Amino acid sequence: MSKSFDVIVIGAGPGGYIAAIRAAQLGFNTACIDEWKNSQGGPAPGGTCTNVGCIPSKALLQSSEHFEHARHHFADHGIGLKDLSIDVARMIGRKDTVVKQNNDGILYLFKKNKVTFFHGRGAFSKGIDGGYQITVGEEVLTGKHVVIATGSNARALPGTPFDEDLVLSNDGALRVGEVPKKLGLVGSGVIGLEMGSVWRRLGAEVTVLEALPTFLGAVDDQIAKESHKAFTKQGLKIELGVKVGKVTTGKKGVSVAYTDAKGADQKLDVDRLIVSIGRVPNTTGLNAASVGLKLDDRGAIVVDDQCRTNLPGVWAVGDVVRGPMLAHKAEEEGVAVAERIAGQHGHVDFNTIPWVIYTSPEIAWVGKTEQQLKAEGRAYRAGTFPFMANGRARALGDTTGMVKMVADAATDEILGVHIVGPMASELIAEAVVAMSFRASSEDIARICHAHPSLSESTKEAALAVDKRTLNF
Ligand code: FAD
Ligand code: NAI
Protein backbone atom coordinates (compact mmCIF):
# COMPACT_ATOMS: atom_id res chain seq x y z
CA MET A 1 0.00 0.00 0.00
CA SER A 2 1.29 3.43 -0.83
CA LYS A 3 1.88 6.11 1.78
CA SER A 4 0.20 9.42 1.01
CA PHE A 5 1.62 12.86 1.65
CA ASP A 6 0.60 16.41 0.87
CA VAL A 7 4.18 17.32 -0.06
CA ILE A 8 7.07 15.06 -1.07
CA VAL A 9 10.51 16.67 -1.25
CA ILE A 10 13.21 14.82 -3.19
CA GLY A 11 16.67 15.75 -1.87
CA ALA A 12 17.63 16.88 1.63
CA GLY A 13 20.28 19.48 0.80
CA PRO A 14 19.69 23.06 1.98
CA GLY A 15 16.96 23.54 -0.65
CA GLY A 16 15.12 20.31 0.15
CA TYR A 17 15.35 19.95 3.91
CA ILE A 18 14.40 23.58 4.47
CA ALA A 19 11.44 23.26 2.05
CA ALA A 20 10.30 20.14 3.95
CA ILE A 21 10.54 21.84 7.35
CA ARG A 22 8.66 24.93 6.15
CA ALA A 23 5.96 22.77 4.50
CA ALA A 24 5.52 20.82 7.76
CA GLN A 25 5.36 24.08 9.74
CA LEU A 26 2.55 25.17 7.43
CA GLY A 27 0.56 22.07 8.37
CA PHE A 28 1.30 19.78 5.42
CA ASN A 29 1.89 16.06 5.90
CA THR A 30 5.42 16.09 4.45
CA ALA A 31 8.00 13.50 3.37
CA CYS A 32 11.63 14.16 2.46
CA ILE A 33 13.70 11.60 0.52
CA ASP A 34 17.49 11.64 0.35
CA GLU A 35 19.95 9.05 -0.87
CA TRP A 36 23.27 10.36 0.54
CA LYS A 37 25.08 7.69 2.59
CA ASN A 38 27.62 8.24 5.35
CA SER A 39 30.71 6.00 5.58
CA GLN A 40 28.65 3.33 7.41
CA GLY A 41 25.92 3.40 4.78
CA GLY A 42 23.52 5.31 7.02
CA PRO A 43 21.61 8.46 6.10
CA ALA A 44 23.55 11.71 5.78
CA PRO A 45 21.01 14.45 5.00
CA GLY A 46 22.29 17.92 4.19
CA GLY A 47 23.34 17.31 0.59
CA THR A 48 26.45 18.68 -1.05
CA CYS A 49 26.46 21.61 1.36
CA THR A 50 26.73 19.53 4.52
CA ASN A 51 28.66 16.53 3.24
CA VAL A 52 31.14 17.79 0.64
CA GLY A 53 30.58 21.55 0.32
CA CYS A 54 29.97 24.56 2.54
CA ILE A 55 30.41 22.92 5.94
CA PRO A 56 33.46 20.66 5.49
CA SER A 57 35.28 23.28 3.40
CA LYS A 58 34.78 25.87 6.13
CA ALA A 59 35.99 23.38 8.76
CA LEU A 60 39.23 22.83 6.82
CA LEU A 61 39.60 26.54 6.09
CA GLN A 62 39.38 27.17 9.85
CA SER A 63 41.95 24.48 10.73
CA SER A 64 44.38 25.62 8.07
CA GLU A 65 43.94 29.26 9.06
CA HIS A 66 44.85 28.41 12.66
CA PHE A 67 47.97 26.69 11.33
CA GLU A 68 48.85 29.68 9.16
CA HIS A 69 48.44 32.06 12.11
CA ALA A 70 50.56 29.88 14.36
CA ARG A 71 53.23 29.61 11.69
CA HIS A 72 53.37 33.19 10.48
CA HIS A 73 51.53 35.57 12.78
CA PHE A 74 51.74 34.41 16.41
CA ALA A 75 55.29 35.75 16.69
CA ASP A 76 53.99 39.31 16.04
CA HIS A 77 51.91 38.92 19.20
CA GLY A 78 54.89 37.74 21.19
CA ILE A 79 53.75 34.13 21.17
CA GLY A 80 56.55 31.65 20.57
CA LEU A 81 55.97 28.11 19.38
CA LYS A 82 58.40 25.26 18.93
CA ASP A 83 57.93 22.19 16.77
CA LEU A 84 54.73 23.29 15.07
CA SER A 85 53.19 20.40 13.15
CA ILE A 86 49.98 19.47 11.38
CA ASP A 87 48.21 16.15 11.89
CA VAL A 88 46.19 15.94 8.67
CA ALA A 89 44.30 12.81 9.75
CA ARG A 90 43.10 14.57 12.89
CA MET A 91 42.16 17.69 10.96
CA ILE A 92 40.11 15.59 8.51
CA GLY A 93 38.61 13.67 11.47
CA ARG A 94 37.49 16.95 13.07
CA LYS A 95 35.93 17.99 9.78
CA ASP A 96 34.06 14.65 9.61
CA THR A 97 32.75 15.22 13.15
CA VAL A 98 31.47 18.67 12.19
CA VAL A 99 29.73 17.13 9.15
CA LYS A 100 28.12 14.42 11.31
CA GLN A 101 26.87 17.01 13.81
CA ASN A 102 25.11 18.74 10.91
CA ASN A 103 23.69 15.45 9.52
CA ASP A 104 22.34 14.55 12.96
CA GLY A 105 21.00 18.07 13.42
CA ILE A 106 18.89 17.74 10.27
CA LEU A 107 17.52 14.32 11.34
CA TYR A 108 16.59 15.92 14.68
CA LEU A 109 14.87 18.83 12.89
CA PHE A 110 12.87 16.37 10.77
CA LYS A 111 11.64 14.63 13.95
CA LYS A 112 10.91 17.92 15.68
CA ASN A 113 8.85 19.16 12.72
CA LYS A 114 7.24 15.77 12.00
CA VAL A 115 8.75 15.42 8.53
CA THR A 116 8.85 11.72 7.50
CA PHE A 117 12.34 10.95 6.22
CA PHE A 118 13.06 8.21 3.67
CA HIS A 119 16.66 7.12 2.99
CA GLY A 120 17.06 6.09 -0.63
CA ARG A 121 16.65 7.27 -4.18
CA GLY A 122 13.37 8.95 -5.03
CA ALA A 123 12.11 8.43 -8.57
CA PHE A 124 8.95 9.44 -10.40
CA SER A 125 6.84 6.42 -11.18
CA LYS A 126 3.78 8.05 -12.75
CA GLY A 127 1.32 10.87 -12.53
CA ILE A 128 -1.93 9.98 -10.77
CA ASP A 129 -5.19 11.81 -10.27
CA GLY A 130 -4.28 14.89 -8.23
CA GLY A 131 -0.62 14.10 -7.74
CA TYR A 132 2.34 11.82 -8.40
CA GLN A 133 3.56 8.41 -7.45
CA ILE A 134 7.17 8.35 -6.24
CA THR A 135 9.19 5.24 -5.43
CA VAL A 136 11.95 4.94 -2.84
CA GLY A 137 13.36 1.44 -3.18
CA GLU A 138 10.42 -0.90 -2.47
CA GLU A 139 8.25 1.84 -0.99
CA VAL A 140 5.64 3.64 -3.03
CA LEU A 141 4.62 7.13 -1.95
CA THR A 142 1.98 9.41 -3.38
CA GLY A 143 2.15 13.17 -3.08
CA LYS A 144 -0.14 16.02 -4.10
CA HIS A 145 2.89 18.28 -4.51
CA VAL A 146 6.48 17.30 -5.32
CA VAL A 147 9.48 19.57 -4.68
CA ILE A 148 12.63 18.52 -6.52
CA ALA A 149 15.85 19.60 -4.80
CA THR A 150 18.35 17.15 -6.22
CA GLY A 151 21.30 19.57 -6.39
CA SER A 152 24.36 19.41 -8.60
CA ASN A 153 27.56 17.44 -9.25
CA ALA A 154 31.10 18.56 -10.04
CA ARG A 155 31.86 19.04 -13.74
CA ALA A 156 34.81 16.95 -14.97
CA LEU A 157 37.29 17.98 -17.66
CA PRO A 158 36.33 16.27 -20.93
CA GLY A 159 38.13 12.91 -21.10
CA THR A 160 39.39 13.14 -17.49
CA PRO A 161 36.95 11.54 -15.05
CA PHE A 162 37.47 12.05 -11.32
CA ASP A 163 39.29 9.13 -9.67
CA GLU A 164 39.21 10.98 -6.29
CA ASP A 165 42.79 9.85 -5.70
CA LEU A 166 44.89 11.86 -8.14
CA VAL A 167 42.20 13.79 -10.00
CA LEU A 168 39.88 15.23 -7.39
CA SER A 169 36.47 16.84 -7.36
CA ASN A 170 35.38 18.81 -4.29
CA ASP A 171 34.67 15.44 -2.64
CA GLY A 172 38.23 14.09 -2.88
CA ALA A 173 39.71 17.55 -2.27
CA LEU A 174 38.13 17.50 1.20
CA ARG A 175 39.67 14.21 2.28
CA VAL A 176 43.25 14.25 1.01
CA GLY A 177 45.22 12.16 3.52
CA GLU A 178 48.47 14.13 3.49
CA VAL A 179 49.64 17.54 2.35
CA PRO A 180 50.61 17.21 -1.31
CA LYS A 181 54.00 18.70 -2.10
CA LYS A 182 52.67 20.10 -5.35
CA LEU A 183 48.98 20.68 -5.92
CA GLY A 184 47.37 21.77 -9.19
CA LEU A 185 43.93 23.26 -9.57
CA VAL A 186 41.99 23.79 -12.76
CA GLY A 187 39.61 26.75 -12.36
CA SER A 188 40.21 29.77 -10.14
CA GLY A 189 36.57 30.09 -9.09
CA VAL A 190 35.18 29.76 -5.61
CA ILE A 191 36.24 26.16 -4.95
CA GLY A 192 39.66 26.66 -6.56
CA LEU A 193 40.46 29.59 -4.28
CA GLU A 194 39.03 28.06 -1.10
CA MET A 195 40.60 24.61 -1.52
CA GLY A 196 43.82 26.08 -2.94
CA SER A 197 44.07 28.22 0.20
CA VAL A 198 43.55 25.25 2.54
CA TRP A 199 46.37 23.19 1.06
CA ARG A 200 48.71 26.15 0.47
CA ARG A 201 48.44 27.15 4.14
CA LEU A 202 49.39 23.61 5.11
CA GLY A 203 52.52 23.77 2.96
CA ALA A 204 51.59 22.67 -0.55
CA GLU A 205 53.00 24.50 -3.55
CA VAL A 206 49.77 25.44 -5.33
CA THR A 207 49.31 26.36 -9.00
CA VAL A 208 45.90 27.36 -10.35
CA LEU A 209 45.18 27.21 -14.08
CA GLU A 210 42.31 29.44 -15.17
CA ALA A 211 40.82 29.63 -18.65
CA LEU A 212 39.57 33.22 -18.45
CA PRO A 213 41.99 36.08 -19.02
CA THR A 214 40.65 37.99 -16.00
CA PHE A 215 40.71 36.94 -12.37
CA LEU A 216 37.29 36.52 -10.69
CA GLY A 217 35.40 38.04 -13.59
CA ALA A 218 32.08 38.26 -11.70
CA VAL A 219 33.65 40.25 -8.88
CA ASP A 220 34.01 44.05 -8.88
CA ASP A 221 37.27 44.82 -10.78
CA GLN A 222 38.88 46.77 -7.94
CA ILE A 223 38.10 44.03 -5.40
CA ALA A 224 39.27 41.29 -7.79
CA LYS A 225 42.59 43.11 -8.35
CA GLU A 226 43.14 43.57 -4.61
CA SER A 227 42.32 39.89 -4.00
CA HIS A 228 44.65 38.73 -6.76
CA LYS A 229 47.45 40.79 -5.21
CA ALA A 230 46.81 39.27 -1.78
CA PHE A 231 46.66 35.65 -3.01
CA THR A 232 49.79 36.07 -5.14
CA LYS A 233 51.64 37.55 -2.16
CA GLN A 234 50.64 34.49 -0.11
CA GLY A 235 52.28 32.27 -2.71
CA LEU A 236 49.29 31.03 -4.70
CA LYS A 237 50.42 30.81 -8.34
CA ILE A 238 47.53 31.81 -10.58
CA GLU A 239 47.93 31.46 -14.35
CA LEU A 240 45.19 33.18 -16.32
CA GLY A 241 44.11 32.73 -19.93
CA VAL A 242 45.29 29.11 -20.23
CA LYS A 243 43.86 26.32 -22.33
CA VAL A 244 44.05 23.00 -20.52
CA GLY A 245 44.87 20.04 -22.77
CA LYS A 246 45.62 16.41 -21.99
CA VAL A 247 45.73 15.29 -18.38
CA THR A 248 47.87 12.20 -17.73
CA THR A 249 47.93 10.28 -14.47
CA GLY A 250 50.77 7.96 -13.47
CA LYS A 251 52.64 6.58 -10.48
CA LYS A 252 54.32 9.92 -9.82
CA GLY A 253 51.18 12.02 -9.93
CA VAL A 254 49.42 14.05 -12.57
CA SER A 255 50.76 15.88 -15.60
CA VAL A 256 48.67 18.64 -17.17
CA ALA A 257 49.50 19.86 -20.66
CA TYR A 258 48.28 23.39 -21.32
CA THR A 259 48.78 26.40 -23.52
CA ASP A 260 49.59 29.60 -21.62
CA ALA A 261 48.17 33.06 -22.29
CA LYS A 262 50.95 33.76 -24.81
CA GLY A 263 50.13 30.61 -26.75
CA ALA A 264 53.19 28.64 -25.60
CA ASP A 265 52.87 24.94 -24.75
CA GLN A 266 53.45 24.21 -21.06
CA LYS A 267 53.30 21.27 -18.67
CA LEU A 268 52.36 21.25 -15.01
CA ASP A 269 53.47 18.23 -12.95
CA VAL A 270 51.73 17.87 -9.61
CA ASP A 271 51.08 15.23 -6.96
CA ARG A 272 47.34 15.81 -7.13
CA LEU A 273 44.97 17.82 -9.27
CA ILE A 274 41.70 19.41 -8.14
CA VAL A 275 39.30 20.16 -10.98
CA SER A 276 36.90 22.96 -10.00
CA ILE A 277 35.41 24.22 -13.24
CA GLY A 278 31.80 24.58 -12.17
CA ARG A 279 28.94 22.21 -11.39
CA VAL A 280 26.19 20.54 -13.39
CA PRO A 281 22.56 20.20 -12.27
CA ASN A 282 21.70 16.68 -11.10
CA THR A 283 18.58 14.83 -12.22
CA THR A 284 20.17 11.36 -12.34
CA GLY A 285 17.80 8.59 -11.29
CA LEU A 286 14.76 10.85 -10.96
CA ASN A 287 13.11 9.18 -13.92
CA ALA A 288 12.08 12.67 -14.95
CA ALA A 289 11.39 11.64 -18.53
CA SER A 290 8.61 9.24 -17.42
CA VAL A 291 6.46 12.19 -16.38
CA GLY A 292 7.69 14.61 -19.08
CA LEU A 293 9.63 16.98 -16.79
CA LYS A 294 11.26 19.65 -18.95
CA LEU A 295 15.05 20.20 -18.74
CA ASP A 296 17.09 22.88 -20.51
CA ASP A 297 20.20 22.21 -22.62
CA ARG A 298 22.42 22.42 -19.49
CA GLY A 299 20.36 19.69 -17.85
CA ALA A 300 18.75 22.12 -15.37
CA ILE A 301 15.05 21.73 -14.61
CA VAL A 302 13.15 24.51 -16.35
CA VAL A 303 11.24 26.64 -13.83
CA ASP A 304 9.49 30.00 -13.88
CA ASP A 305 10.41 32.77 -11.45
CA GLN A 306 8.23 31.04 -8.83
CA CYS A 307 10.07 27.68 -9.14
CA ARG A 308 7.12 26.01 -10.94
CA THR A 309 8.15 23.32 -13.45
CA ASN A 310 6.17 22.48 -16.58
CA LEU A 311 4.23 19.84 -14.55
CA PRO A 312 1.32 20.95 -12.37
CA GLY A 313 2.13 20.48 -8.68
CA VAL A 314 5.83 19.85 -9.33
CA TRP A 315 8.33 22.48 -8.15
CA ALA A 316 12.12 22.61 -8.25
CA VAL A 317 14.62 24.61 -6.18
CA GLY A 318 18.34 25.10 -5.59
CA ASP A 319 21.29 24.01 -7.72
CA VAL A 320 19.10 21.91 -10.03
CA VAL A 321 17.45 25.09 -11.41
CA ARG A 322 18.72 28.39 -12.87
CA GLY A 323 20.45 31.02 -10.76
CA PRO A 324 23.48 31.03 -8.48
CA MET A 325 24.51 27.71 -6.97
CA LEU A 326 24.48 28.83 -3.36
CA ALA A 327 23.09 27.16 -0.26
CA HIS A 328 21.24 30.26 0.95
CA LYS A 329 19.65 30.77 -2.48
CA ALA A 330 18.44 27.14 -2.36
CA GLU A 331 17.04 27.68 1.16
CA GLU A 332 15.20 30.86 0.18
CA GLU A 333 13.61 29.08 -2.78
CA GLY A 334 12.66 26.13 -0.54
CA VAL A 335 10.84 28.38 1.92
CA ALA A 336 9.15 30.35 -0.86
CA VAL A 337 7.89 27.19 -2.59
CA ALA A 338 6.42 25.75 0.63
CA GLU A 339 4.64 29.06 1.22
CA ARG A 340 3.35 29.17 -2.37
CA ILE A 341 1.97 25.64 -1.98
CA ALA A 342 0.11 26.98 1.06
CA GLY A 343 -1.32 29.78 -1.08
CA GLN A 344 0.96 32.41 0.44
CA HIS A 345 3.20 34.89 -1.39
CA GLY A 346 6.66 33.36 -0.98
CA HIS A 347 9.34 35.74 -2.20
CA VAL A 348 13.02 35.55 -3.18
CA ASP A 349 14.87 38.77 -4.00
CA PHE A 350 17.53 37.73 -6.51
CA ASN A 351 19.05 41.23 -6.39
CA THR A 352 20.14 40.89 -2.79
CA ILE A 353 21.68 37.42 -2.66
CA PRO A 354 25.12 37.77 -1.09
CA TRP A 355 28.21 35.94 -2.35
CA VAL A 356 31.09 35.05 -0.06
CA ILE A 357 34.46 33.47 -0.80
CA TYR A 358 35.90 32.22 2.49
CA THR A 359 39.56 32.76 1.71
CA SER A 360 41.84 35.03 3.66
CA PRO A 361 41.23 37.85 2.93
CA GLU A 362 37.54 36.99 2.61
CA ILE A 363 35.68 38.34 -0.42
CA ALA A 364 31.98 39.22 -0.19
CA TRP A 365 29.58 41.17 -2.30
CA VAL A 366 25.94 41.94 -2.96
CA GLY A 367 24.32 43.82 -5.81
CA LYS A 368 25.96 45.36 -8.84
CA THR A 369 29.64 45.82 -9.60
CA GLU A 370 31.06 49.07 -10.93
CA GLN A 371 31.70 47.43 -14.32
CA GLN A 372 28.06 46.27 -14.53
CA LEU A 373 26.79 49.77 -13.82
CA LYS A 374 29.13 51.23 -16.45
CA ALA A 375 27.88 48.69 -19.00
CA GLU A 376 24.28 49.63 -18.14
CA GLY A 377 25.16 53.31 -18.52
CA ARG A 378 23.76 54.03 -15.07
CA ALA A 379 25.11 57.08 -13.25
CA TYR A 380 26.55 56.15 -9.86
CA ARG A 381 28.88 57.33 -7.13
CA ALA A 382 31.41 54.98 -5.53
CA GLY A 383 33.16 55.20 -2.17
CA THR A 384 35.88 53.00 -0.72
CA PHE A 385 37.44 52.71 2.71
CA PRO A 386 40.61 50.66 3.33
CA PHE A 387 40.88 48.38 6.39
CA MET A 388 44.36 49.84 6.81
CA ALA A 389 42.64 52.92 8.27
CA ASN A 390 40.37 50.92 10.61
CA GLY A 391 41.45 50.63 14.26
CA ARG A 392 39.95 47.18 14.84
CA ALA A 393 41.63 45.79 11.72
CA ARG A 394 44.97 47.14 12.96
CA ALA A 395 44.42 45.54 16.37
CA LEU A 396 43.56 42.26 14.67
CA GLY A 397 46.69 42.56 12.55
CA ASP A 398 44.58 42.09 9.44
CA THR A 399 44.51 45.27 7.36
CA THR A 400 44.34 43.90 3.82
CA GLY A 401 41.49 45.09 1.67
CA MET A 402 38.62 47.53 1.69
CA VAL A 403 34.89 48.10 1.72
CA LYS A 404 33.44 49.63 -1.42
CA MET A 405 29.94 50.99 -1.83
CA VAL A 406 28.25 52.05 -5.06
CA ALA A 407 25.10 54.16 -4.99
CA ASP A 408 22.79 55.70 -7.58
CA ALA A 409 24.03 59.18 -8.50
CA ALA A 410 20.57 60.72 -8.39
CA THR A 411 18.70 58.87 -5.62
CA ASP A 412 21.69 57.66 -3.55
CA GLU A 413 20.09 54.18 -3.30
CA ILE A 414 22.80 51.60 -2.56
CA LEU A 415 23.29 49.47 -5.68
CA GLY A 416 26.16 47.28 -4.52
CA VAL A 417 28.61 46.65 -1.71
CA HIS A 418 31.91 44.86 -2.31
CA ILE A 419 34.31 43.81 0.39
CA VAL A 420 37.70 42.16 0.47
CA GLY A 421 39.19 41.80 3.92
CA PRO A 422 38.71 40.42 7.41
CA MET A 423 35.25 39.03 8.25
CA ALA A 424 33.79 40.17 4.93
CA SER A 425 31.38 37.21 5.28
CA GLU A 426 29.80 38.82 8.35
CA LEU A 427 30.12 42.46 7.26
CA ILE A 428 28.14 41.83 4.09
CA ALA A 429 24.98 41.14 6.14
CA GLU A 430 24.59 44.86 6.91
CA ALA A 431 24.76 45.64 3.21
CA VAL A 432 22.15 42.96 2.42
CA VAL A 433 19.79 44.38 5.04
CA ALA A 434 20.37 47.93 3.77
CA MET A 435 19.73 46.95 0.15
CA SER A 436 16.66 44.88 1.09
CA PHE A 437 15.18 48.01 2.67
CA ARG A 438 16.39 50.06 -0.33
CA ALA A 439 18.55 52.22 1.92
CA SER A 440 20.67 55.08 0.65
CA SER A 441 24.38 55.44 1.33
CA GLU A 442 23.46 58.40 3.53
CA ASP A 443 21.30 56.09 5.68
CA ILE A 444 24.34 53.93 6.47
CA ALA A 445 26.53 56.99 6.95
CA ARG A 446 24.11 58.31 9.61
CA ILE A 447 23.84 55.04 11.59
CA CYS A 448 25.93 54.67 14.76
CA HIS A 449 28.41 51.78 14.37
CA ALA A 450 30.27 50.33 17.38
CA HIS A 451 33.87 51.40 17.90
CA PRO A 452 36.29 49.80 17.38
CA SER A 453 34.68 47.45 14.86
CA LEU A 454 35.29 46.39 11.30
CA SER A 455 31.75 47.53 10.52
CA GLU A 456 32.90 51.13 10.88
CA SER A 457 34.57 50.56 7.51
CA THR A 458 31.13 50.09 5.95
CA LYS A 459 29.96 53.36 7.46
CA GLU A 460 33.16 55.05 6.22
CA ALA A 461 32.66 53.61 2.71
CA ALA A 462 29.16 55.11 2.79
CA LEU A 463 30.66 58.46 3.84
CA ALA A 464 33.20 58.06 1.03
CA VAL A 465 30.35 57.94 -1.50
CA ASP A 466 29.77 61.58 -0.51
CA LYS A 467 33.53 62.23 -0.35
CA ARG A 468 33.52 62.89 3.40
CA THR A 469 35.32 60.05 5.16
CA LEU A 470 36.29 60.91 8.71
CA ASN A 471 39.19 58.52 9.26
CA PHE A 472 40.92 58.45 5.89
P1 FAD B 1 22.42 19.65 -2.72
O1 FAD B 1 23.02 20.24 -1.51
O2 FAD B 1 23.34 19.16 -3.78
O3 FAD B 1 21.53 18.44 -2.22
C1 FAD B 1 20.87 17.58 -3.09
C2 FAD B 1 20.57 16.29 -2.34
O4 FAD B 1 19.67 15.52 -3.13
C3 FAD B 1 21.79 15.41 -2.09
O5 FAD B 1 21.80 14.98 -0.76
C4 FAD B 1 21.57 14.23 -3.03
O6 FAD B 1 22.09 13.01 -2.52
C5 FAD B 1 20.06 14.17 -3.07
N1 FAD B 1 19.51 13.52 -4.25
C6 FAD B 1 19.77 13.75 -5.56
N2 FAD B 1 18.99 13.00 -6.34
C7 FAD B 1 18.22 12.26 -5.51
C8 FAD B 1 17.20 11.31 -5.73
N3 FAD B 1 16.78 10.99 -6.96
N4 FAD B 1 16.62 10.74 -4.64
C9 FAD B 1 17.01 11.07 -3.38
N5 FAD B 1 17.97 11.97 -3.13
C10 FAD B 1 18.55 12.56 -4.19
N6 FAD B 1 27.30 27.48 -1.07
C11 FAD B 1 27.22 28.50 -0.18
O7 FAD B 1 26.20 29.20 -0.14
N7 FAD B 1 28.24 28.76 0.70
C12 FAD B 1 29.38 28.02 0.71
O8 FAD B 1 30.28 28.28 1.50
C13 FAD B 1 29.50 26.96 -0.21
N8 FAD B 1 30.61 26.20 -0.24
C14 FAD B 1 30.69 25.17 -1.12
C15 FAD B 1 31.87 24.42 -1.16
C16 FAD B 1 32.00 23.38 -2.06
C17 FAD B 1 33.27 22.59 -2.08
C18 FAD B 1 30.91 23.06 -2.93
C19 FAD B 1 31.01 21.92 -3.87
C20 FAD B 1 29.75 23.81 -2.90
C21 FAD B 1 29.63 24.87 -2.01
N9 FAD B 1 28.48 25.67 -1.97
C22 FAD B 1 28.41 26.71 -1.09
C23 FAD B 1 27.34 25.42 -2.85
C24 FAD B 1 26.24 24.64 -2.08
O9 FAD B 1 26.78 23.46 -1.56
C25 FAD B 1 25.08 24.34 -3.00
O10 FAD B 1 24.62 25.52 -3.63
C26 FAD B 1 23.93 23.72 -2.22
O11 FAD B 1 24.32 22.54 -1.58
C27 FAD B 1 22.74 23.44 -3.13
O12 FAD B 1 21.70 22.90 -2.37
P2 FAD B 1 20.61 21.94 -3.01
O13 FAD B 1 19.66 21.63 -1.89
O14 FAD B 1 20.10 22.53 -4.24
O15 FAD B 1 21.40 20.62 -3.45
P1 NAI C 1 33.09 28.48 -10.41
O1 NAI C 1 32.06 28.70 -11.42
O2 NAI C 1 33.12 29.32 -9.20
O3 NAI C 1 34.53 28.61 -11.07
C1 NAI C 1 34.94 27.82 -12.14
C2 NAI C 1 36.15 28.45 -12.79
O4 NAI C 1 36.71 27.52 -13.66
C3 NAI C 1 35.81 29.71 -13.57
O5 NAI C 1 36.69 30.75 -13.23
C4 NAI C 1 35.97 29.25 -15.02
O6 NAI C 1 36.39 30.29 -15.88
C5 NAI C 1 37.03 28.18 -14.87
N1 NAI C 1 37.05 27.18 -15.91
C6 NAI C 1 35.99 26.58 -16.52
N2 NAI C 1 36.41 25.67 -17.42
C7 NAI C 1 37.76 25.68 -17.37
C8 NAI C 1 38.78 24.95 -18.05
N3 NAI C 1 38.48 24.01 -18.95
N4 NAI C 1 40.06 25.24 -17.77
C9 NAI C 1 40.38 26.18 -16.86
N5 NAI C 1 39.47 26.90 -16.18
C10 NAI C 1 38.17 26.65 -16.43
O7 NAI C 1 32.98 26.92 -10.06
P2 NAI C 1 33.57 26.05 -8.86
O8 NAI C 1 34.72 26.71 -8.21
O9 NAI C 1 33.71 24.69 -9.42
O10 NAI C 1 32.39 26.06 -7.83
C11 NAI C 1 31.09 25.65 -8.24
C12 NAI C 1 30.05 26.43 -7.54
O11 NAI C 1 29.93 26.00 -6.19
C13 NAI C 1 30.35 27.93 -7.42
O12 NAI C 1 30.01 28.62 -8.57
C14 NAI C 1 29.45 28.30 -6.29
O13 NAI C 1 28.18 28.48 -6.78
C15 NAI C 1 29.51 27.08 -5.40
N6 NAI C 1 30.48 27.32 -4.32
C16 NAI C 1 30.23 28.33 -3.44
C17 NAI C 1 31.12 28.60 -2.43
C18 NAI C 1 30.85 29.75 -1.54
O14 NAI C 1 29.75 30.27 -1.59
N7 NAI C 1 31.80 30.18 -0.71
C19 NAI C 1 32.32 27.80 -2.22
C20 NAI C 1 32.50 26.79 -3.24
C21 NAI C 1 31.59 26.56 -4.22
Summarize the structure.
By secondary structure, this protein is of the alpha/beta class.
Keyword list:
FAD/NAD(P)-binding domain; 472 residues; binds 1,4-dihydronicotinamide adenine dinucleotide; 3 domains; 5-stranded parallel sheet; binds flavin-adenine dinucleotide; alpha/beta; 7-stranded mixed sheet; 22 strands
For the sheet with most strands, the description reads: 7 strands, mixed
| Classification by helices and strands | alpha/beta
Shape: globular
User: Strand-residue fraction?
Assistant: 25-35%
Could you tell me the radius of gyration in angstroms? Answer: 24 Å
**Total number of helices:** 14
Unreliable stretches: none
Named at the architecture level, the CATH assignment of the largest domain is 3-Layer(bba) Sandwich
Please state the average pLDDT score.
97
Whole-Å distance between the termini? 72 Å
Question: How is the CATH topology of the largest domain named?
Answer: FAD/NAD(P)-binding domain
CATH class value of the largest domain: Alpha Beta
Oligomer class: single chain
Which ligands appear in the coordinates? flavin-adenine dinucleotide, 1,4-dihydronicotinamide adenine dinucleotide
Number of domains: 3
Strand segment count = 22
CATH superfamily of the largest domain: FAD/NAD(P)-binding domain
* Fraction of helical residues: 25-40%
Fold and architecture overview:
This protein has 3 domains: 3-153 and 280-348, 3-Layer(bba) Sandwich (FAD/NAD(P)-binding domain), CATH 3.50.50; 167-277, FAD/NAD(P)-binding domain (3-Layer(bba) Sandwich); 352-465, FAD/NAD-linked reductase, C-terminal dimerisation domain (Enolase-like, domain 1), CATH 3.30.390. The protein is built from 14 helices and 22 strands. It has helices at residues 14-25, 47-52, 54-73, 88-112, 170-173, 190-201, 221-234, 288-291, 327-341, 370-376, 391-396, 424-436, 441-446, 456-465; strands at 3-10, 30-34, 116-119, 122-128, 131-136, 139-148, 152-154, 167-168, 182-186, 205-209, 237-239, 243-250, 253-259, 265-270, 272-275, 279-281, 314-316, 355-357, 362-367, 380-386, 402-408, 414-421. A hairpin with a 4-residue loop joins strand 18 and strand 19. Helix 3 (54-73) runs antiparallel to helix 4 (88-112) and helix 3 (54-73) packs across helix 6. It is globular. The mean pLDDT is 97. The protein binds flavin-adenine dinucleotide and 1,4-dihydronicotinamide adenine dinucleotide. 1,4-dihydronicotinamide adenine dinucleotide binds at residues 157, 186-192, 194, 209-212, 244, 276-279, 324-326, 356-358. The site of 1,4-dihydronicotinamide adenine dinucleotide (NAI) has 24 residues, from helix 6 and strand 18.
